[in-house]
Amino acid sequence: MASDTFPVEVGLMFEGERIRRNDMQLELGGPKADAKWEIVRVRPAGDVVDGEIRVLGPDLDALAPGMSHPVGVLVEISGEKLEEDIEGVLERRIHEFLNYVEGFVHLNQRHEIWMRLSRRSFEKGLNSFRYLGQVLIRLFRDDLPIIEAMQVTWISDPDTVREMLDEAVSRYETRDARARGLLDEDVDTFYGCALCQSFAPTHVCVITPQRYANCGAISWFDGRAAAGIDPKGPIFGIAKGACLNEKTGEYEGINEIARKRSMGEVERVSLYSAFEFPHTSCGCFEGIAFYIPEVDGIAVVHRGFRGPAVNGIPFSTMADSTAGGRQVSGFHGISIEYMRSSRFLQADGGYGRVVWMPGEVLERVREYIPDGLADRIATEKDALSVGELKAFLEKTGHPVTGRWKPDSGREQDKDRKQEKTVLRLSELPIRAGGITLVLKNARITAERVIIERRPDDPRRRT
Ligand code: SF4
Predict the structure, then answer these.
(1) Of 87, 162, 185, 251, which sits 20 to 30 A from 462 (CA to CA)?
(2) What is the mean pLDDT of the chain?
(3) Is 90 in the pocket of ligand 1 (CB under 6 A)?
């Protein structure tokens, strides 16, 4: 897109850009906005006015600076060869394309989107949603010729955003439900997605019928549809090859692709485990499954959870330790839909090993938790510290207590008093001065660990 017809530059070089709170004009969506969503819908040909951009509510130059605002993005497309199956995948391209805009950052997906506009780009003239609509239409049409007509509606009127939220969520649920029931052994091909490599160069999502994409936005059916219409695009088929370990979900074909696409950094991937060779995590995951050594259990925290999780660390801080395309044993990016799969962490004990999660997530997945277990999993109402968690698990007779050695409690208490934490990391890439230092199977012991978000991270909550 030429700079003489557009107020700012648009191109690949702006992907991965960061905008600090102090440098932003305003935020759209994000944790401080009570409603936000984006959706792509396939419509009959006559229902889409090609090139039309509508703004329902105040435009960018009329929104209060420095604030977070509710927002909705409705992309409607038509084309003879377009099917509804493709909606989820095209929706993820909104993230990709908006990140090409100089001074504009898009994070997350669906009803968790978080966008930031820089003051500099605003002052250069990027002061209307219409420009962002133009970018979407131009890049979608260039990349996907099967789109014959496309219109974009930006919604910034808070009441309208809230009114349309339920409709969007119900559409997401319909898409997700479609993939349930199909088993990984029923198919020969899995799908890989490399859309997030601009943020996490060694990351590839492996999408299988029973392991939904980390962002929670792309099912196996979506992957199949995307690879079919755009075989050279960021979503591609992976021939499963031989199954090397049924329990951990390790496949020859996946290892091969992971090695190739990560430039040798990732050699093995276990689809159904949070340990040793976990699936890599980019930064778009909906939740994190994390290990709590004191109870030998796994907890889950999702992006929307406010405040510290049961280990005393908030989602945002743990996300920094998990993201970047790394394999961090015991910190594992996941989607909520994967929690509905019977393969969920199967190599680690499945729900029999899950000890804590926010009440909101528990209710969303309750019917997929094996009988008698859901009420033995603590939520923020039952435990907000490891000590409280341990007492809860003992009281409810959670199966994880069977893993505790008779004197392990005493030893763990002793360790806690000494404030000693041991992290086991199978790989820890350290990058500096153009050199990557990879520690394999190393054990690092520290008297104290302080994890802080970098000051220039646009997701930093200040
Ligand atoms: S999280 Fe995974 S599936 Fe989702 S866009 Fe990123 S790479 Fe693709």
Answers:
(1) 162
(2) 89
(3) no
